[in-house]
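Structure first, sequence second, as always.
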């Protein structure tokens, strides 16, 4: 039965991820990336939003191992100008051509179909349309993807492991920076002169869409500026 096959695939994925994570507990992020590239080859992709320091650190590490690694991002049509500028700077720095995936609906078409300012009335639906569905297309044909999740980013990410089975997209998710701190990431950024989004220096430790991102006050969670004023904490890609 199809349901049984899907269930078996999920169970095998979870078990494999747990075994690999156990083996990689003491591995440095670059070693985790090296392992992932050797394990999954051309069926591995790296997600870089160009709006997070973790993603930029991973991009820097990854292209040093495999310059032709598939790099992709989701362009929601609502990204900050500084995010596009960071993408362009990374393209020049690393000689890469990241693949951009956009929603099927333009902002105008979305407003006509669902009403104006959907991100205020139903942010989950807005993210499903503008982030999750394009990301699904970005992952087609892959067996694993690299993401910048870290345990210290928020309570919802406190159990991140170096390798996880991604039940939403039915493939493995690799998180090389899983146990790094914000300080460690910035140390790497400075040491390797990695280009980062300039808004990080202006009170935005975590960047998403312009409509749903604000500055973070001292002492707040690193992702407190995302969907502020609502109970929403994730865009849907990682839960």
């Amino acid at each position: 039965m199809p349901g049984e096959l899907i269930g078996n695939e999920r169970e095998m994925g979870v078990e494999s991820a747990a075994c690999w994570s156990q083996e990689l507990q003491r591995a440095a992020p670059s070693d985790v990336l090296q392992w992932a590239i050797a394990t999954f080859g051309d069926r591995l992709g790296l997600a870089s939003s160009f709006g997070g320091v973790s993603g930029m650190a991973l991009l820097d590490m990854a292209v040093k191992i495999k310059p032709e690694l598939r790099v992709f991002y989701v362009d929601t049509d609502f990204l900050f100008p500084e995010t596009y500028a960071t993408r362009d700077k990374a393209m020049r720095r690393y000689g890469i051509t990241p693949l951009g995936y956009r929603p099927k609906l333009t902002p105008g078409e979305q407003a006509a179909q669902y009403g104006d300012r959907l991100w205020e009335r139903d942010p989950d639906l807005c993210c499903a349309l503008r982030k999750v569905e394009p990301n699904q297309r970005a992952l087609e044909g892959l067996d694993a993807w690299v993401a910048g999740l870290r345990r210290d980013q928020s309570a919802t990410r406190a159990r991140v492991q170096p390798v996880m089975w991604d039940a939403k997209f039915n493939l493995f998710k690799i998180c090389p920076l899983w146990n790094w701190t914000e300080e460690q990431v910035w140390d790497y950024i400075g040491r390797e002169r990695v280009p980062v989004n300039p808004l990080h220096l202006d009170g935005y430790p975590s960047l998403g869409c312009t409509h749903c991102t604000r500055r973070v006050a001292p002492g707040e969670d690193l992702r407190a500026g995302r969907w502020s004023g609502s109970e929403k904490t994730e865009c849907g890609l990682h839960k």
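Margin note: The longest strand covers residues 70-74.
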